[in-house]
Structures are given as C-alpha cells and as structure tokens.
Amino acid sequence: MNFENILVEQANGLATVIINRPKKLNALNKATIEELHNAFKALENDLTVKAIILTGSGEKAFVAGADISEFAHFSVEEGGMLARKGQEILFDFVENLSTPVIAAINGFALGGGLELAMACHFRVASDNAKMGLPEVSLGVIPGYGGTQRLPQLIGKGKAMELIMTAGMISADEAKDAGLVNHVTSQEELLPLAEKIASKIMRNSSVAISAAIKAVNDNFKDGVNGFKTEITEFGNCFGTEDFKEGTTAFLEKRKPDFPGK
C-alpha cells in the first residue's frame, strides 16, 4: 500500500500504521483521514493481519490535532458534515474494526489526535506523552467523538474538567485516570505495543472479533450488550477456532487457530 501521509508496515501477522506528517506534527487533514480509512479497510480485509498498531512518526507527536487551516472558514453545515464524515470513515470505523487496534502514543495527542487514540481498542503511551482536548480554546467542541469516548474511559467529572479547561495531562496522569493502559519510555513504546500484540495474536481472532463487538455494544444507545454477548458466545460454538481451542486444551497442547 502506497500513501502520501501514512506508512503501513506488515510482518508476521502484525501491521503498523504510522501517521507520517512530522513537519505538521502529524496533524489530521482530510487527505490523511481518507488514507487512514483506506489503510484500515485493507488491513481489516487481510485475513493474515491479526493485530494493528497505530502511531505517529518522529518523537514529538502521535497526532497534534486536526489541521485547523482546512476548516477555519467553514459554515455551520460544513462543520457538521466534517464531524459526521470523519466519525463515519475513521473514528467509528476504527472502533468497530474486528481486528484489534492498539494506539502507541508518542508525544502530543491533542484534539483529533486524542480522539483517534480513544477510537482504538486500547492505548499505551511514552512517558513524554501529553494528552488533551483543547477545542473550546478555539471556540468549538471536540467533533470526532471526544465528548463521548472520554467520559466513557475516565468518567464524566474528569472528562468535563479536561474538556472545559482545554488542559493537557501527562502520560502518568492518563494512566491513573484509565485513559492509557501502560506508560513506558519512548524507546520501548513500540516494543511494548508489539509484545502486547503478540499475546493477542496467540488467541482466536474469531473470538477476539466477537469480544470487540460485545464490549462496544455496551456503549451504544438502544443496544443491549448482554444480548450481544449471549449471541456472540453462542456463535463461537460453530467456529473452527472453538473446536481447535477446546481440543487443544483437552489434549494439553497449544492451539493452532485457523481463524475461522
């Protein structure tokens, strides 16, 4: 896959997507959002890919925000369409991928950058990372899911404070709040993400996909996550992965999941 603003690397079932606009601190413009959508769609359809790591190039930023120059003069209708399309093709799209996505946050993750990290299934961060949603300092609110996902992850009160103050928190503060799972040095960030991904990849990709759907449904209005869990649990019994997993357990060997 050849892109202008991102890099995609694949090896041994693991894909790494790197947002590559270091001179712009990897800010999200329209073209980058489109490229990310196309990359994630292609990786989702590649059955050899069992996990995805998303990170930014350079040492300064994961994604420092959206490219404000692209929408500074938008109308009300254009602003609404910007948020609607962005959520549809990238942020909601990533959240609902059946392939697990780990955000490896190196440096600044602000505005749309933090929103993109929150759309991933979970997050690890380098100890120099800074995270925040500064949109109200520009006279706007987070539009790529930030007002929804941040309270889900850290609670309403803390999310309200971060959004209304437009402040930033450190990696350690983010870990304490439950926004990121692990904090490590910048040098060890990708190795840590790869280590976690390798553990994920040992398990059934079919079961992981079902688990992602069940967990996500708990946060969707009008959807009963418990019912989804029951349905997906039952569906697992008809998979080759279930047969292999249970057989391997009974035979006291490691399973070799076919991913079907």
Account of the 3D structure:
The chain is an alpha/beta fold and 260 residues long. It has two domains: 6-201, 2-enoyl-CoA Hydratase, Chain A, domain 1 (Alpha-Beta Complex), CATH 3.90.226.10; 205-250. It is 47% helix and 17% strand. It contains ten helices and ten strands. It has helices spanning 30-45, 76-95, 112-119, 146-154, 156-165, 171-177, 186-201, 205-217, 225-236, 240-250, and strands spanning 6-11, 14-19, 51-56, 61-63, 101-105, 108-110, 122-126, 130-132, 168-170, 182-184. It has a six-stranded mixed beta sheet with strand order 1-2-3-5-7-10, sandwiched between helices. α1 (30-45) links the parallel β2 (14-19) and β3 (51-56). The chain is globular, with a radius of gyration of 19 Å. The protein starts with 5 loop residues before the first strand and ends in a 10-residue tail after the last helix.
Q: Give me the CATH superfamily of the largest domain.
A: 2-enoyl-CoA Hydratase, Chain A, domain 1
What class, by secondary structure content?
alpha/beta
Give the overall silhouette. globular
Please tell me the total number of domains. 2
Can you identify the CATH class of the largest domain? Alpha Beta
Number of helical segments with 4 or more residues: 10
- Distance separating the two termini: 26 Å
Helix proportion range:
40-55%
CATH topology of the largest domain: 2-enoyl-CoA Hydratase, Chain A, domain 1
Amount of beta strand: 15-25%
Low-confidence stretches: none
**Arrangement of strands in the largest sheet:** 1-2-3-5-7-10
DSSP strand count = 10
What is the H/E string? EEHEEHEEHEEHHEHEHHHH
- From the alpha carbons, calculate the radius of gyration and give it in angstroms: 19 Å
Average residue-wise pLDDT: 96
Quickly give the CATH architecture of the largest domain.
Alpha-Beta Complex
Main pleated sheet: 6 strands, mixed
